[in-house]
Every structure is written in C-alpha cells, then in structure tokens.
Amino acid sequence: MFIYHRRMKDKGPLSRIAEGISDACYVWWQEMRNTFKDEGVIIFFLIVPIAYPLLYSWVYNNEVVHEVPVAVVDNSHSALSRDFIRRCDASPDVRIACHATDMDEAKALMSSQEVRGIYYIPSDFSTRQGRMQQTVVSVYCDMSLMLTYKAVYQAALLVSQEMNSDIQVAVSGNQTDREDEIMRMPLAYEEVPIFNSTGGYGNFILPGVLMLILQQTLVLGIGLAAGTARETNGYKELIPISKHYRGVFRIVLGKALCYMMIFSVTAAYLTLVVPRIFGFAALSRPADLLGVMLPYLLACVFFGMTVSCLIRYRENVMLLVVFMSVPLLFLSGVSWPQSDIPWFWQAVSWIFPSTFGVRAFVRVNSMGAGLSDVVTEYRMLWLHVVVYFCLACGVYRYQIYLSRANLMRRLRDLRHKRAVRRKLRHGVGKDR
User: Fold this and answer.
1) What's the CA gap between 191 and 200, in Å, rounded?
2) Pair 122, 105: CB distance under 8 Å
3) Could you report the per-residue pLDDT of 231-287, keeping only the tens digit for each?
4) At what angle do helices 314-331 and 286-310 cross, to 10 degrees?
5) Any residues with CB less than 8 A from the CB of 288 and at least 6 apart, and which?
6) Which residues have a Cβ under 8 Å from the Cβ of 316 and sit 6 or more positions away?
C-alpha cells in the first residue's frame, strides 16, 4: 500500500471552482448511495414521514368529541328534572349512559372510566323552581381529558340556558311571540368562526406536528447516516480519506444537497397532500408556503449535520430525538400559548428551527398569512440557516482535522514498526 501526498499545482480560479463543484457532486452522489443502502436511514427519511402523519391524521379525523358518556343521579324524579335529562341526552356533545341511584355508584362508574361526567340533580330541584328560588345542578367532570370536560360542561350549560329562557317566558306574561323571543334573548349574538371553522382538534394540532416531524426525522436520518459512516470508514471517523473530501464547503454543500433533495419531496407531501387527504385547512398561497419551507428545510439540514458530528453512535441520536420531540412541540407555542412559557424556556426554544418553523407554517397555512405577517419568524429561520451552516462547517473542519491526524499517527506508527523490524533483522545478521 502506497500512501503519498501530492502538492496541488497552481490553478486558476475557474479550475478551482470547477474542481470544487466536481467534488461537491461526488460527495452528493456518495451520500445518496449510502442513504439508499442504509435501511435505518431509509426508514426515517422516507417511511416514517409518510406513515406517521397518516397515523396522526386518522386519530384526529373526527375533529370534535361527540357522545361523551355521562351518568345522572336524579334525586328529584320530577317532570322538570326529566326534561333536563332529556335535553342533555338530545345534545350532540353528551350521551346519558346510565341512571345511578346515588353519588357513590356514579363515582364508581367514573373511576372505572365507563362515564366521563356526572349530572347530580338535588331532591328539591323542582320544588325550588316552583317557589321561584334558584336551584342548582351539580356537574362533575373528568378533568384528565380537557376535550371531554368541555363537552360535558358545555352541554349542561346550554341546556340550563334554554330552560332558564323557557321559565322566564312562562312567568313574564307576554302577549306576543315577538315579546317571548326578546325575553329569551334580549341581546343577540352571532358566532363567526375564524380560521378553524370546524372547531376541530386535528386542524389545530396537525400543522405544528407535521413541521416537527420534518425536523425530527431529518435529524434522525442524518445522525444515523453519520453513525454508519463512522462504522464503515477505515479510521472510524466521519470524513473518509479521499481527494474529494478535502474542502469543508464542498463536503457540507454536497451532503446538504442530498438531504434537501430527499426532504423537498417529503415536505411537499406533508404540506400539500396530507391536509387535502383529510380535509384539513390549507389557506396558504404557494409563494408564501415556499418562502417559509425553504429556510426551514435548510435550517433543519444544517442543524442535523451539526448535531450528527457531535454524536458518535447511531443509538444516541435516536434517544436524543425521541426525548426532545414532545418538549419541542410544547415550546413551539402551538399546544400552549407562547406568552405563558417561562422566559428561560423561550430562550431555549430559540435554539431549534422547529420553534419558528412551526409558528410560521401554522399562521401561513391555517390563517392565510403572508410572509409580511411572519417576518419575525422568517428572519429567524434565515438566521438559523446562517448560524448552523457556519457551525456545520466548523465541526466538519474539525472532523477533517481528526481524520488527517489519525492518518498521520498511523503512518508514524507504521514507520516506527518498520524501523523496529529493520533493526531486529540487522541485529540478527550481526549475531550470525
């Protein structure tokens, strides 16, 4: 095996540019080959981004919670209490699953998750109403799931409002239907849903989840590819010893081009295909959507390349990404208001491209905003691109240094062993 160093000849600028482009294309081609040869990388680059959004979308396909089971404890046994129960059962939000004899039985049903709420009607329910006294219906809700709590409470609230209006009309002594209508609702209001017109939970949570899936799968795939490269390279380093891997920029750009080509298709599928399959809101204009996705993908690519250089083994990147997925969704400000996140964690969230990518995409896709409306997030994404590109170049330069240092150390060891062998042979020859 002959190892030698060749001094580079003086070349013109065009020759050096052409050589850099050629090396970047070589790096890109090798990265594409290695990606599609690695089953683990294929899973996280292609299969997971395709299958995971479908799973999420099917789970939230019903959008709104209906027919929540509720137990009733009716101690009044009056016409008025039966009317209250009938109206609650007729509402789309809840379903009267059973009539319990007492609160102990109802609480036992709630503990076993057979019902999600309890309506308790006291024995003096009808009597107090006949005496023109205020009466109370107690509503017990399962607060472990906010959606069911909202359904149970809202159904009871709407029924009580309807019955209050009917009672007011009955005692008012109005002469005309118009007077009865005004008595029921002296102040009319009109509900106009904006953006999420269906009130669906899927329309609310899915846009943010899709953007987070892009980042996490990209980081996972790049990390696994880096682990494979360390395992297959002769010196167990990320950068192989090759004439094509001499410059930092050609390495970073070649690898980034490979990941961008793959995830451009994935991003188009997540942002254009999945919402239309399940009928989720998609109010974005193509130019605005492209303006958000381009810096977001670039930032995620360079962020993943930076992280991959710091993690040596394939298993570590999987543990890291899985651990960070749920906190990143919370920190993005989608599932929890951004203004109520402590300032320290807000500062931590600025490290990750998903924070600004999720916020920008939700406003552009679900609210029909333009780039001028998300200018802060847009600028921060480009800042992430610049910062993580520089960091990726820095850590890859260090990886090149490590590869060359290991090569020189092995050369010195080899020369030392050869010198020892020669001395031993000469010593044996003199003894003879």
Assistant:
1) 16
2) no
3) 666 555 556 566 656 778 888 888 899 899 988 888 888 888 888 877 777 777 888
4) 140
5) 364, 369, 370, 371
6) 223
Letter string b/e over residues 291-329, b meaning 16 or more CB atoms within 10 A of that residue's CB = bbbbbbbbbbbbbbbbbbbebeebeebbebbeebbeebb
Contact 306, 221 (CB under 8 A): no
How many Cα neighbours within 13 Å face the side chain of 377? 28
- The secondary structure of 22-91 as a DSSP string is HHHHHHHHHHHHHHHH-HHHHIIIIIHHHHHHHHHHHHTTT-S---EEEEEEESS-SHHHHHHHHHHHHS
User: Which amino acid, one-letter code, is at 265?
Assistant: V
DSSP string, 252-304: HHHHHHHHHHHHHHHHHIIIIIHHHHHT------HHHHHHHHHHHHHHHHHHH
Token match 């809700």: residue? 141
Residues contacting 88, CB < 8 A, separation 6+:
70, 72, 94, 96, 119, 155, 156, 159
Q: Chain-centre distance of CA 36, in angstroms?
A: 25
Give the sign of the dihedral formed by CA 270, CA 273, CA 279, CA 284. positive
Quote the pTM value: 0.74
CA distances, 50 to each of 42, 258, 281, 304 (Å): 11, 19, 19, 20
Angle value at C-alpha 323, between 322 and 324, nearest 5 degrees: 95
Contact 200, 64 (CB under 8 A): yes
Cα distances (angstroms) measured from residue 216 to each of 48, 304, 320: 10, 9, 10
Instruction: Dump pLDDT digits (tens) for 131-190.
Output: 777 788 889 987 777 778 888 888 888 888 888 777 665 656 555 655 555 555 555 556
Domain 68-184 has CATH 3.40.1710.10: yes
CB atoms within 10 A of CB 49: 25
Q: How far is CA 185 from CA 87, 188, 193, 315, 382, in A?
A: 19, 6, 21, 63, 53
Delimit the domains of the chain by residue range.
15-59+200-416, 68-184
Q: Sheet harboring 94-99: ordered strands across?
A: 94-99, 68-74, 117-121, 138-141
